[in-house]
TrEMBL record, chain A:
Name of the protein in its database record: Septin-type G domain-containing protein
Stored Pfam families: Septin (PF00735)
UniProt-listed SUPFAM superfamilies: P-loop containing nucleoside triphosphate hydrolases (SSF52540)
Protein location: Cytoplasm, Cytoskeleton
InterPro entries in the record: G_SEPTIN_dom (IPR030379), P-loop_NTPase (IPR027417), Septin (IPR016491)
Transmembrane segments: none
PROSITE patterns assigned to the protein according to its UniProt record, in alphabetical order: G_SEPTIN
Gene Ontology molecular function terms on file: GTP binding
UniProtKB/TrEMBL annotation, chain B:
Lineage: Eukaryota, Metazoa, Chordata, Craniata, Vertebrata
Residues in coiled coil: 334-383
Keyword Nucleotide-binding: yes
Protein source organism: Periophthalmus magnuspinnatus
Name of the protein described by the UniProt record: Septin
GO terms of molecular function: GTP binding
Family: Belongs to the TRAFAC class TrmE-Era-EngA-EngB-Septin-like GTPase superfamily. Septin GTPase family.
Keyword list, A-Z: Coiled coil, GTP-binding, Nucleotide-binding
CDD domains: CDC_Septin (cd01850)
Amino acid sequence: MVAPTVGPVYGEKPSSVVDFSYVGIDAILEQMRRKAMKQGFELNIMVVGQSGLGKSTLMNTLFKSKVSRKYVQATAQEKIPKTIEIKSISHDIEEKGVRMKLTVIDTPGFGDQINNENCWQPIMRFINDQYEAYLQEEININRKKRIPDSRVHCCIYFIPPTGHCLRPLDVEFMRRLSKVVNIVPVIAKADTLTLEERDFFKQKIREDLRANGIDVYPQKEFDEDQEDRMINEKIREMIPFAVVGSDQEYQVNGRRLLGRKTKWGTIEVENIAHCEFAYLRDLLIRTHMQNIKDITSTIHYEMYRVRRLNENNTGAVHTNGLSDHSAHEM
Amino acid sequence: QDKNIRPLNLAGHVGFDSLPDQLVNKSICQGFCFNILCIGETGIGKSTLMDTLFNTNFENFESSHFEPQVKLRAQTYDLQESNVRLRLTVVNTVGFGDQMNKQESYQPVVDYIDRQFESYLQEELKIKRSLHNYHDSRVHACLYFISPSGHSLKSLDLVTMKKLDSKVNIIPVIAKADTISKSELHKFKIKIMSELVSNGVQIYQFPIDDETVAKVNTSMNGHLPFAVVGSTEEVMVGNKMVKARQYPWGIVQVENESHCDFMKLREMLICVNMEDLREQTHTRHYELYRRCKLEEMGFKDTDPECKPVSLQETYEAKRQEFLLELQRREDEMRQMFVQRVKEKEAELKDAERELQSRFEQLKRLHADEKATLEDKKKALEEDQVSFGKRRAAAQLLQGQSLTANGKKDKDRKK
């Protein structure tokens, strides 16, 4: 077998020295990168939480632009809807040549009614509808070159900063949805908690999650190797992230930073001593974005597909894959 | 759902420009797969070229010229360069062009390519599938080795390439190009390309839609087919050892661009377009195969009234059909079984009856014999009784005569 010396990367061949043992196999990395840049990426994030927890602001902070639905749809007044609605808005963003189609899916009305039983159903249905659409396209005879991916890659769940423990609504929702989508729980408006309160709250939440068998992202069972496990263990020790969002800039120590200004001081959003927004952003965007998409397509989607293709053989099934059985389960 | 996509300007650095890197890192962990098919006559230099291309010795052995049929031999190797792991499969034809009758020569090749598509399709249609772990064996590139006659393509070449052009990316190469002079080579290349065009053979065109590589690809498209020379032997030229073929009249250097097009082939096949070859195989050739196969099996996207029919419904219908057929066969078998059982039962009953009658017969015989024996026994007993009587009578008589004699004696003695 060949053991070539480390050859020059394609495009950087020095003119005088030609390495005769260089084949050029590693040039495929560059080819892949080029193809990815040309195709662009797609990301679909869903935000779930009661109204007033700062979901839109957090999205704006994450993507440093006005991705919130409020700026897109001119509504006269923001009324809490009588039922849960699912509203998704797509954006085309570009950074250093990398193009991304970002879709933010908002769920106004979640947890706002007096009777919140089954409030997860519209959301489950929406997620399953996206899987269904992908499946239908995939099993077509004449199918598109690139199947448009509208599957929900990540669902950010906002926990109100009570400081005690998870509420029944939180537990129910996360328990059901962690089976079909990657859930990233965050503590919203974390500037109402002191550091000790925050640590206590996080520990309590982690205990509650463990006690109820809720597997949030990054899921333990999908760790691929030792390296992954090490990185993900560190993340799992910090979940849920306590975040503060803001799209306003203030002058702090001579620099303009995103933050919230109060009489007793300015909370810097991107300062890890103040809140954990930076960790969330790094997890979602800078390091684990591809992994989130991979888990959605190779695990959650495949599970849906198996269920759906098996269901057709046994019982009656609605068009969105929720059979009569699973409707009762939910 | 809002279908309009708004373009948005970012006010700061978000960080998703690391996405291509994340993607590349994942691919490095997974490793890559590349499958090359080499078609050419025996002895034309396929194995040597592969060895030269990948800088290694692929453990080949020479094939005989007396193969009765064209066969394909596939070998898989794991190569590594810096941090990239490549699983390379080289498929060679064995005995191509050696037979007297070459009409069916292309068929084993077509069958091989279809088999790889079929196994991918099977995996894709499975309910529990693992596509991301699947070892992709579909042929990504086909190097067709043209004999360096200097005139034109052989009819076998045209027929084979025509059969393969919709199934695989064909890259024609002129083998053993050191037997053709430069001017002849130029004319030969033009003749080959014009013959391919006039016969409607679609060979692989290096992609020109990406500006980064459009220029080099366009110029390379003009150099097709590549005239290659392969060699794994090294010869001293100047002060370096280079891969070359040494002749009494000079040395042909494999990696010298003015001697042959080997470097161009390596650059195009591996360094610039490997990913595109894989993508074309998946999105064009495989999709065509899949469409044809599914349509052949009776699936459609729209039914006769042009309403969209889901694959699911057709699949269900076919499944019902199949189950009914199974049911019918099962019933048939059951009936046959019942029939056989009845026959056997009748047979057994006959045998039983026969046995029964024999038993009766024997019983009667036995009874008869017993009766006879009884009679004989009675007769014997009667005989015994009469004998006993006679014996008693005789004894009595004898006793009387004795006493009479004794009396007589006594009387005499007196």
